[in-house]
Amino acid sequence: MSRKSKSLITKITKSHAGYTRRSVLAGSAAAATLLATPNIISAKDAGKVYVRTSGGSYQDALQAGTWNKFTELTGIEVVPVPANTAKLLAMVESGAGGLDVAEANATAIVTLHSKGALDKLDTSNFEYTDVADLSIATDFYLDYATFAEAMCYNTDTYSEKHPTNWKEFWDVDTFPGSRMLQDAKAIAPNLEFALLADGVSVEDLYPLDIDRAFAKLLEIKPHVVKFFDSGALGASLLAEGTAVLGSLWTNRVLALKKDGAPVDIEWNQNMRLHEYSAVLKNAPNRDNALRLIDYATSAAAQAATLPVIGLSPANIKAFDFIEASVAATLPGSPENKPKGFDSDAGWWLQNRDAVAERWQEFLLA
């Protein structure tokens, strides 16, 4: 870690952190000032960097918490571009370039890497980030953010006692109530949770036993009112009380809870999923791309950007800037990380088609 970065960690206290956008941005601004280079150049001189994003509130958070400050510090304009994995691959294979940074989920990044579409990262000149502080760092992509799928429940229905693991989730006699689980169209069906319910340990989950998982899902199927195919639908089912127990992405549950819905999260046996940053082959602005990734994965930038939308920083030092009560709502926090496990994106990439076929058979059973 550079001397500037060490100075940042020691000089900025937790008083800069908090759950509101205003407070986390204040902390980031202070950090950025300490780390800023002496000469800030204009965007006209510094050029641009084109970033693949998924849009929505996620892009808004990146813009407000990271990109605006990055442009202020470096003069480099960040241009977001919507694109799916197929479009990114087509760009790289044609040699056309056009995009610099791929900001995407693990499955997309692993796919791009397997197709040779990513450029090897040179982090030797990183000024803001020590890659040793990141949860996952490879030669071709760096961990950026973590979200999680976890058990959620209606606090009115389970006011005294709720299931605390997936085996108890499957116990409909002790914990009666309508359930929901994820459809294959929404990332993937909950094979991991089914296997945990059947007694498989977290350490032995992968490679997933597909036959065993679907046999366990058949047991709970009569009690599932809906296999939701989007986070929005899952949140609606939970908010309306159509389902009082289920799996859902924790940032969705936090948003409902903030709006006053009687819901909460059981963090035990939560499954973490990662968002990664990478530089695409033939990137026309490769140096700018590396500078953006360097800044975006810094502790201060991540603390200012991700907790606002319920996502967890990949940089462990970011938690130095996040209030303890906020950290307790994030899957990668020191409190919650030991309670969960990482989804194996490589396994899913190899087996997604086979699982999708089995899923259709399961729905008809």
Structure overview:
Mean pLDDT is 88; it is low at 1-44. Helices cover 41% and strands 18% of the residues. It is built from 15 helices and 10 strands. The chain has 2 domains: 16-146 and 274-340, 3-Layer(aba) Sandwich (D-Maltodextrin-Binding Protein, domain 2), CATH 3.40.190; 147-272 and 343-364, Periplasmic binding protein-like II (D-Maltodextrin-Binding Protein, domain 2, 3-Layer(aba) Sandwich). By secondary structure, the chain is α/β, with parallel strands linked by helices. It is globular, with a radius of gyration of 21 Å. Strands 1, 2, 3, 4, 5, 6, 7, 8, 9 and 10 form a 10-stranded mixed β-sheet that branches. Helix 2 packs antiparallel against helix 13 (299-305).
What are the main properties of this structure?
single chain; 365 residues; alpha/beta; D-Maltodextrin-Binding Protein, domain 2; 2 domains; ten-stranded mixed β-sheet; 41% helix; globular
Major sheet characteristics: 10 strands, mixed
Strands, total number: 10
Summing up helix and strand content along with how strands pair, one would put the structural category as: alpha/beta
How far from one another are the termini? 56 Å
Report mean pLDDT, rounded to a whole number.
88
Order of helices and strands: HHHEHEHEHEHEHHEHEHEHHEHEH
Shape: globular
Radius of gyration: 21 Å
The CATH architecture designation of the largest domain is: 3-Layer(aba) Sandwich
* Count of helix runs: 15
The CATH superfamily of the largest domain turns out to be: Periplasmic binding protein-like II
Q: What is the CATH class designation of the largest domain? A: Alpha Beta
- Which consecutive residue ranges, at least 5 long each, have pLDDT under 50? 1-44
Strand content: 15-25%
What is the domain total for the residues? 2
Q: What is the fold named in CATH at topology level of the largest domain?
A: D-Maltodextrin-Binding Protein, domain 2
Helical content band: 40-55%
